[in-house]
Design a protein that fits this description.
The complex is a heterodimer.
Chain A (H helix, E strand, L loop, with lengths): L1 H7 L1 H25 L22 H34 L15 H30 L6 E8 L2 E8 L6 E4 L3 H9 L15 E4 L4 E7 L4 E5 L4 E5 L5 E5 L5 E7 L12 E6 L1 H18 L9 H20 L16 H4 L3 H10 L14 H12 L12 H8 L1
Parallel strand pairs in A: 1-5, 4-10
Antiparallel strand pairs in A: 1-2, 2-3, 5-8, 6-7, 6-9, 9-10
Helix pairs in contact in A: 1-2, 3-4, 7-10, 9-11, 10-11
Chain B lengths: L1 H4 L14 H6 L4 H30 L9 H36 L7 H9 L1 H10 L25 H29 L12 H32 L13 H18 L2 H15 L6 H14 L15 H29 L8 H24 L1 H7 L3 H31 L5 H27 L14 H30 L46
The chains are: A alpha+beta, B mainly alpha.
């Protein structure tokens, strides 16, 4: 029916439609004003129209290259379409222009093949330099493994100051809730994480990417890096931030339903602050480690002890505890079954036979206690004894 | 002239067209099959367009308003698959079916029954694809690129999608074989290859591309299928497979695929511009060579889609150089078109408007392509809205505009009536303006780092997303206008009767037959003039 109406008065209908569009536009702009938001330093700016301000040499080079290309393309564009529009204005039938008859010229064809070719080479030269620089991940001061996980990022400090630090970083759940509710707010909406990646300024940071499940994309525009994190494979990239600050990025490779909710936040700090942060993290790690005063139940100890046994003991004493050749069996061993826990603790901490059975004092009190408890209550060993970390601690003195 | 209509037995007029549903289901006539292809692709364009509008509705504001992220990912995936495999590709096959026999003076396509099969295969494939929304777990949500191992996490609709693409691929291959054989074997005497209209040339090259790469896609998705169900680990890292290998195989198909979607458009534009400039196409030979060079180069650039996946320096440099090289033959084409217009005697009916619009806006997409080809810049804008802007500039303003132009140019021949010029102009200007309102701001979003396929985004990106959404609804409205006020009227035969030669500058054998083109044309080989543009005797 609408169609019939419109057929009778298409122009009036069109105007009404245009007016409706304008109204919708007005409403939209009013709405936009209601969603007040400011630029996010290190992240997107409001209505940003160019690349993100760089904090690395590579990012600066990328932006420079982009500007160069934009200028070259702009000049060609104006040249070609200036010619075309001149022709459109002047060479029209309504102005009585008669069509010329020319339709080929080998010279012209050769010229406009060779000239663009030269321009392309001109563009490729600076780009090549940047590609080579981008790919040079050698001589890093700090190596961090980034693991894409549906839908969060795991960070492991592999080498350099802070080695051993490891944590998982995910979007602030409050922002995820805002998104579902359709009530976004805040300048760092969808960019705020619980544990930002912290790195020192002016140091070469090598990022090794991998993933647990599907491909993710580690993308931080201001650092000039984007590298896919591929399950089963490792890839690397690098950056050297030249100023401190917080820089934001997002996952760039479609990774399932929560793809838009796994941001990246990189905190670049001064060397001193970084050292302080590392110390803090190490302390936290230590604090999170087992409390030697804790009193364990038998079941908890067995579970923990099995892991320690498999990781450290099973290679020689075998998973069945029977040992092999010169390696003593644990299953049915007199020392293991002895009512005096101290005997076995002494063996584990001190070693035997000049290190043929090595000392395991590098293990924590909890680990030693757990593995002894495990061996005392596994296979045919059923002593029911529980060795507590405090026992081990006492034996160490 | 007589050869055109020469029906050896003019008295039994009836045997030509069967009537009713049999005419379409059993169709072997290239014109009927061409029409069905075009109607089918227009339908798919509308379905894909609705999905696009749903995406834009969700992205109008930050926060989730209409869809959860699962459904959003399904929408983007299905929009891509439907537009690529359901709208653009079949539409060009429709143009090929209609125009290639007419342009080379052949009575029909070489394999008429295979032609029927390649069309009718599309229907179950399209149904399976579209209806996968209603399967458990919804439609595939991997993006149209179907990257492993995300495909392994999808529900049964993934299998439906894979099967649909297999069928569409088979249809494309059959269509291509048909086109190649028709062009190589059925040209009228005197229609040498180098006198053939460029539309036939571009399609000939496209058909070879299709035959080369559709099996590659079939391989990639078959391996995905066996990874999903039969315990293989081609792309599954859990079993030692390589997800990146999928990307290499996919893009070995995917990059020629984008030229499959643009080369026939070049052919259409090369027909329209000389017609309305009233001047022969400048540099015909170099156009043919440029098309062939683009096709050949398209096989050695695929990994430019993968700069951020990580590859050795030499690999990155090679694919960067090869990609930038494509700018050269493409530039030659643009220059040739502008030179064709230069000192012509131009008029600007709707086909010409779309051709000029194509030239202007497609070239912007070409430039952004050059920028994306630079590996260091790509690191900043890969998988962002910049890429979305880029490929919509080349696929919408490129392929789709060329097809609109082709529709306005040839529909008088197809339907026998002239479209309404005023409505055509409204459609053009509306589409042009809203297209740019929609996609131009996406360049900014991409440069600012907004990743694509995001259901929700940081608030700083709000304004440009709003503008893009408003533009998208305007653009959608213009296509509804096109359907109801241009396409349906001419299909119903409403409008001024079209003369045999509606465009005084147009050349070619299609204008040697009456409007509408009779059911059978060129049943006996016509005798052609020296340029092979006119039928003599």
């Amino acid at each position: 029916m609408i169609i019939m109406n419109t057929k009778q008065a298409p122009s009036r209908r069109l105007w009404r439609r245009a007016a409706q569009c304008m109204l919708a536009l007005g409403a939209a702009l009013a709405n936009a004003a209601a969603l007040a938001v400011n630029d996010l330093p290190g992240g997107p700016a409001v209505d940003q129209i160019d690349l993100t301000p760089p904090v690395t040499r590579i990012a600066a080079d990328q932006i420079w290259l982009h500007s160069l290309l934009l200028i070259i393309c702009g000049v060609i564009f104006v040249g070609v379409f200036g010619t075309m529009f001149y022709s459109i204005v002047r060479h029209r039938k309504s102005r009585g222009h008669k069509a010329a008859q020319f339709h080929e010229s080998t010279t012209v064809e050769i010229v406009w093949t060779i000239v663009p070719f030269l321009i392309v080479i001109l563009m490729a030269l600076p780009a090549t330099k940047v590609v080579v620089a981008m790919k040079d991940t050698s001589a890093a001061d700090l190596t961090i493994k980034v693991t894409g996980i549906q839908w969060k990022w795991g960070y492991d400090y592999l080498k350099g100051e802070g080695e051993g630090i490891s944590f998982v970083s995910m979007l602030d759940p409050a922002q995820r809730a805002m998104s579902s509710a359709g009530q976004p707010a805040g300048d760092d909406y969808l960019l705020k994480v619980d544990h930002p990646l912290v790195v020192p300024v002016d140091k070469k940071i090598r990022i090794i990417t991998t993933a647990n499940d599907v491909i993710h994309g580690f993308f931080v525009p201001s650092l000039g890096i984007q590298q896919s994190a591929i399950p089963g494979f490792v890839r690397d990239t690098w950056f050297r931030a030249d100023k401190v600050g917080t820089f934001y990025g997002q996952c760039s490779q479609l990774c399932g339903k929560e793809h838009s909710y796994m941001p990246i936040q990189v905190k670049v700090v001064s060397a001193a602050d970084y050292t302080a942060w590392v110390d803090g993290e190490k302390k936290k790690l230590a604090a999170a480690a087992d409390d030697p005063a804790k009193v364990w139940t038998l079941d908890d100890m067995l579970a923990r002890g099995e892991k320690v046994y498999n990781a450290n003991c099973a290679a020689c004493h075998r998973p069945d505890g029977k040992g092999a050749g010169p390696i003593k069996p644990l299953d049915g061993s007199a020392i293991v079954l002895d009512a005096d826990k101290g005997k076995q603790i002494e063996v584990v901490l001190g070693g035997r036979l000049n290190g043929a059975m090595p000392s395991w004092k590098a293990l924590s009190d909890t680990e030693v206690a757990a593995v002894i408890t495990f061996t005392k209550n596994h296979w045919s060993n059923k002593t029911g004894q529980v060795v507590q970390p405090s026992d081990v601690l006492a034996a160490r003195k | 002239m007589s050869a055109v209509l020469d029906h050896p037995h003019a008295d039994d007029h009836d045997h030509g067209a069967p009537h009713g549903w049999r005419r379409w289901l059993y169709a072997t006539n290239h014109k009927d099959i061409g029409t069905m292809y075009l109607v089918f692709s227009l339908t798919m364009l509308m379905i894909g367009g609705v999905l696009a509008l749903l995406i834009r509705a969700e992205l109008f504001q930050p926060g989730l308003q209409f869809f959860n992220p699962e459904l959003f990912n399904q929408l983007t995936t299905m929009h891509g698959l439907i537009m690529v495999f359901g709208a653009i590709m079949p539409a060009f096959v429709g143009f090929a079916n209609w125009m290639i026999p007419l342009q080379i003076g052949a009575p029909d396509m070489a394999f008429a029954r295979m032609n029927n099969l390649s069309f009718w295969l599309l229907i179950p494939a399209a149904l399976m694809l579209v209806l996968s929304f209603f399967m458990p777990g919804g439609a595939p949500a991997t993006g149209w690129t179907l990257y492993a191992p995300l495909t392994l996490q999808m529900g049964p609709s993934m299998d439906a999608g894979i099967f649909a693409m297999h069928i569409m691929g088979a249809s494309s291959i059959m269509g291509s074989i048909n086109i190649i054989v028709t062009i190589l074997n059925m040209r009228a005497p005197g229609m040498t290859l180098m006198k053939m209209p460029l539309f036939c040339w571009t399609w000939l090259i496209t058909a070879y591309l299709l035959i080369a790469v559709m099996p590659v896609l079939a391989g990639a998705i078959t391996m995905t299928l066996t990874d999903r169900h039969f315990g293989t680990s081609f792309f599954n890292p859990g079993g030692g497979g390589d997800p990146v290998m999928f990307q290499h195989i996919f893009w070995f198909f995917g990059h020629p695929e984008v030229y499959i979607m643009i080369l026939p458009a070049f052919g259409i534009v090369s027909a329209i511009i000389p017609a309305f400039a009233r001047k022969r196409l400048f540099g015909y030979t170099s156009m043919v060579y440029a098309t062939a060079s683009i096709a050949i180069l398209s096989f050695i650039v695929w990994a430019h889609h993968m700069f951020t996946q990580g590859m050795p320096v030499t690999g990155q440099l090679f694919f960067m150089y090869a990609t930038m090289l494509i700018a050269v033959p493409t530039g030659v084409k643009i220059f040739n078109w502008v030179a064709t217009m230069w000192r012509g005697s131009m008029t600007f009916e709707t086909p010409m408007l779309f051709a000029v619009g194509f030239l202007f806006v497609f070239t912007m997409g070409g430039f952004t392509g050059l920028i994306l080809a630079m590996a260091p810049i790509d690191i900043q804008i890969h998988d962002t809205y910049y890429v979305v802007a880029h490929f919509h500039y080349v696929l919408v303003a490129g392929s789709l505009y060329a097809m609109f132009g082709g529709f306005y140019y040839w529909s008088p021949k197809w339907t026998g009536v002239m479209y309404d010029e005023m409505r055509g102009k409204i459609h053009f200007w509306g589409s042009l303006v809203f297209f740019n309102v929609t996609f131009f701001p996406m360049h900014f979003l991409g440069l600012a780092g907004m990743p694509r396929r995001y259901a929700d985004y940081p608030m700083q990106f709000t304004d440009f997303n709003m503008i893009a959404s408003i533009g998208a609804f305007g653009f959608g409205l213009m296509q509804v206008y096109f359907l109801f006020f241009v396409v349906l009227p001419v299909m119903r035969g409403k409008g001024a009767p079209a003369p045999q030669q509606p465009w005084d500058g147009a050349e070619g054998l299609e204008w040697e037959v009456p409007s509408p083109a009779p059911f059978h044309t060129f049943e006996t080989p016509p005798r052609l003039n020296a340029q092979a543009t006119k039928v003599i005797g």
